[in-house]
Amino acid sequence: NPEFHGNPNFASCLLPDHLISMAELDLLTQNVVCAHSETCQFLQENLQVIRWETFSQSEVHGFQQKPMDHMWERCVCHITNAIQQIVEFAKRLNGFMELNPNDQIVLLKAGAMELLLLRMSRAFNCYNNTIFFEGKYAPLDLFQSLGCNDLISAMFDLCHSLCAVNLSEYEMAFYSAMILLDPTQPWLQEKEKVQSLHVKLDVAFRNLLRRTHRESILGKLPQRGRLLSICQVHMEKLKVFRQMYPGMAWERFPPLYRELFVSEQEDP
Ligand SMILES: N#Cc1cc2c(cc1C(F)(C(F)(F)F)C(F)(F)F)CC[C@H]1N(C(=O)[C@H]3CC[C@H](C(=O)O)CC3)CC[C@@]21S(=O)(=O)c1ccc(F)cc1
Fold first, then answer.
1. pLDDT digits (tens, 9 = 90+) for 250-260
2. Of 46, 28, 23, 25, whose CA–CA distance to 92 is shortest?
3. Measuring from atom 3 of ligand 1, which residue has the nearest CA?
4. What is the per-residue pLDDT across 83-126, written as a single tens digit (0 to 9) for each?
5. How many CB atoms lie within 10 A of CB 95?
6. Atom 40 of ligand 1 has which residue's CA nearest to it?
7. What is the structure's pLDDT at 2?
8. What is the dihedral of CA 196, 202, 208, 212, to 10 degrees?
9. Protein residue closest via CA to atom 39 of ligand 1
10. Percent of the chain predicted with pLDDT > 70
């Protein structure tokens, strides 16, 4: 942990290789929070206002009647839009565009799904276990024609534990940035550059948590492994789906989705 000088007024802190000023921490905080709020598809207050607008039983039944490939295509379209927004979030983070292109892709491939789950939890109503989907809030069984209820219930469970922490937009923004700029990702070519960004985020985030007396959330955030295991199930489901509908992945999946989730060598 960086040790702070005694005097909080200067609030500068000594890091292994450089000094960060309070002004720089404030600028970094503004950058992270704006990158998040400008790239989420829905404002938190709007999601809150409509969170009791749930689909009726007959509307749910209508979704359950849709053929599997039709439902998958709609969800893949939504996930592609959401991933595009997550890529935009990354591009706006100070320092991300200065990383080498290979490392940018490595970080996005590894972190996109996790950030998606974080953003999904913003659109989750943990009181009635519904998720915002195509204009209203949907129960889990609305998605049964996708044929991956275990994956979706794992996502709902994760949303529950994230809701329990009740992250503010500021905290969500920092948590997202720190998941994305993870220097421990394998295959990084310029690990130290990611490390330097991560350290600054860590100092700014801890500063924010101290100022808002919210240090306790650090112990309540879901383990990274839990996020990752859901992402792995997602990849397996995607593979099963592509075996059921061979060839579809390429024609009907948008290119960005393929780039991030369908690796070349494994596709027949
Ligand atoms: N294709 C899909 C797919 C698509 C999505 C998710 C999961 C999958 C798969 F998990 C599947 F299909 F198996 F469930 C998959 F594919 F990943 F495996 C979770 C994130 C969801 N999502 C969101 O929650 C957004 C995130 C951004 C947020 C914002 O920016 O404000 C608004 C809400 C976008 C894609 C979307 S979805 O809306 O299609 C959706 C799908 C199933 C479900 F039970 C609930 C939602």
1. 566 677 777 77
2. 28
3. 75
4. 889 999 999 999 999 999 999 999 998 898 889 999 999 999 99
5. 16
6. 75
7. 47
8. -170
9. 75
10. 87
What the block records as the tokens of 188 is 């990084």
Report in angstroms the alpha-carbon separations of 226 from 232, 235, 259.
Answer: 10, 15, 24
Instruction: Output the CA 32–ligand 1 centroid distance in Å.
Output: 23
φ/ψ (deg, to 5) at 167: -65, 135
Taking the alpha carbons at both ends of the chain, their separation in whole angstroms is 48
pTM of the model: 0.88
Q: Could you tell me if the CB of 90 is within 6 A of ligand 1?
A: no
Q: Treating both helix axes as pointing N-terminal to C-terminal, what angle do 101-122 and 224-244 enclose, rounded to 10 degrees? A: 100
Q: Do the Cβ atoms of 2 and 144 come closer than 8 Å?
A: no
Place of tokens 């879901």: 222
> What is the interface pTM, i.e. ipTM, of the complex?
0.98
Residue 47 to residues 40, 150, 206: CA-CA distances in angstroms?
A: 11, 25, 28
AA identity, residue 147: G
φ and ψ at 106, to 5 degrees? Answer: -60, -45
